[in-house]
Design brief:
Structural class: alpha+beta
Radius of gyration: 23 Å
Number of strands: 18
Helix content: 25-40%
Strand content: 15-25%
Largest sheet: 10 strands, mixed
Oligomer: single chain
Number of helices: 14
């Protein structure tokens, strides 16, 4: 446990010149404000750093804008990218009037979720292990105006680049569509970039377990990092995204966590492993299906029951639903299985009860990790409290069922507006214990409906293809 005094010792030892306060907005983007070391002292940990919250999307109006950033010493690390030695520290956003976490601050919501778990008596620790996939492209261009819109991705590694003329010649080594899992270089052209990302992650204290190319052509990748407690693991996810973006940038490349940036190949998911513990005991371990306890089955039942509402948080972009279509390994069917990756909840094979967990496969890396992990846990706990059994496991390939069986298995939402409607109708499980507020949910739906309406009102090139000559 790092203390404020230890952070000050690090500042002195490393000759830190700046402190960078970071927080996360509703959409999941990290924001920052820097102060020179002359303006930073131990009082920042008790009194916070004042800032204007009115300009953050989905937050306060101008009439009540003063907020405080309250740094968490546990999160401190030296930034690997800035020219001047800078200490980064994650913050809670606090209301100055009462000193409580702002009800729209994602990190404060995640902390309230952890507190709710303890107060419920069901458990004392929630562990999360997300697996965010991402693409690395050479460059990307897009344009949207009244004359029309276009987007183009440039990638020497892409299957579509086999006929391109490059300055240094075309090597011909690249993964085919769905062919990226996982040939050695030179087909996998991003090993060195991933290795640099791994070393940067480990340098800031995030343990890495694996890195590899993913299934899709044109540079789909994954770096697997260790599980941790809910809030801490969300902090790490934000740092991972920051490091992936900036290492790619330093190589003259561009990285994206968009779920479906390219058409006709696998999208990027963020499978989320989770388990609940109490008094040092894994409550998911038992002698039921795949070594699960009744507690774990009810937890699965809660996630399946509330999945459509969860989609608004776990799959929060219009682009998310271009990934959530059958095939392309997309987990659209709301079922659970130890063997079947087409099910939306998988039980990984593990060697011991200590590692027993479930893997929710429908989330994607556009999700704000603080909101995503908190919402998944709240849904699962609702399943435990109400003994919601998920039914029998699905051990067949869910993409190839006969129609009469297929229609009996529910699916995730097909669009963001469907998910937002589901959240509006089903969110009592989130507001238990004041974890998510009604005000936050209303503001979140309003913010996201703005995205829905923008895409609804923008004429799409595919529409020209389908309708121009009719």
């Amino acid at each position: 446990m790092t203390t404020a005094k230890q952070v000050l010792d690090i500042i002195k030892e490393k000759e830190v010149k700046f402190v960078d306060f970071r927080f996360t907005d509703t959409r999941g983007k990290e924001q920052h404000v820097g102060v020179p070391i002359s303006a930073f002292g131990e009082d920042k940990f008790t009194e916070g750093h004042a800032f204007d919250g009115s300009s953050i999307a989905g937050w306060k109006g101008i009439q009540a804008s003063d907020m405080l950033l309250m740094p968490d010493p546990e999160t401190a690390f030296i930034d690997p990218f800035f020219d001047e030695t800078t200490l980064v520290i994650s913050c809670d956003v606090v209301e100055p009037s009462d000193g409580k976490g702002y009800d729209r601050d994602p990190r404060s919501i995640a902390k309230r979720a952890e507190a709710y778990l303890k107060s419920s008596g069901l458990g004392d620790t929630a562990y999360f292990g997300p697996e965010p996939e991402f693409f690395i492209f050479d460059s990307v261009e897009w344009n949207i105006d009244m004359s029309g819109c276009r987007v183009q991705i440039f990638s020497e590694e892409a299957a579509w680049s086999s006929g391109e003329k490059f300055e240094s010649g075309n090597t011909g080594h690249r993964p085919a569509v769905k062919g990226g899992y996982f040939p050695v270089p030179p087909v996998d052209s991003h090993n060195d970039i991933r290795a640099a990302m791994v070393l940067a992650l480990e340098a800031v204290g995030i343990p890495v377990e694996v890195h590899h190319h993913e299934v899709a052509t044109a540079g789909q990748n994954e770096i697997g990092t260790k599980f941790n407690t809910l809030v801490r693991r969300a902090d790490w996810t934000q740092t991972l995204k920051y490091i992936v973006h900036n290492v790619a940038h330093s190589y003259g490349k561009t990285a994206t966590f968009m779920p479906k940036p390219i058409v006709g190949d696998n999208g990027s998911g963020m499978h989320v492993h989770q388990s609940i513990w109490k008094d040092g005991k894994n409550l998911f371990a038992g002698n039921g299906y795949a070594g699960l306890s009744e507690f774990a089955l009810y937890y699965i039942g809660g996630i399946i029951k509330h999945a459509k509402a969860l989609n608004a948080i776990t799959n929060p972009g219009t682009n998310s639903y271009k990934r959530l279509v059958p095939h392309y390994e997309a987990p659209v069917k709301l079922a659970y299985s130890a063997r079947n990756r087409s099910a939306s909840i998988r039980i990984p094979h593990v060697a011991s009860d200590k590692a027993r967990r479930i893997e929710t496969r429908f989330p994607d890396p556009l999700a704000n990790p603080y909101l995503c992990f908190a919402a998944l846990m709240m849904a699962g706990l609702d399943g435990v409290q109400n003994k919601i059994h998920p039914g029998d496991p699905a051990d067949k390939n869910l993409y190839d069922l006969p129609p009469e069986e297929d229609k009996l298995i529910p699916t995730v939402c097909a669009s963001l507006d469907e998910a937002l409607d589901a959240l509006a109708a089903d969110h009592a499980f989130l507001t238990k214990g004041g974890v998510f507020s009604e005000d936050f949910i209303a503001a979140y739906i309003d913010l996201k409906m703005g995205e829905v309406n923008r895409t609804r009102m923008t004429t799409h090139p595919v529409e020209f293809d389908m309708y121009y000559s009719l």
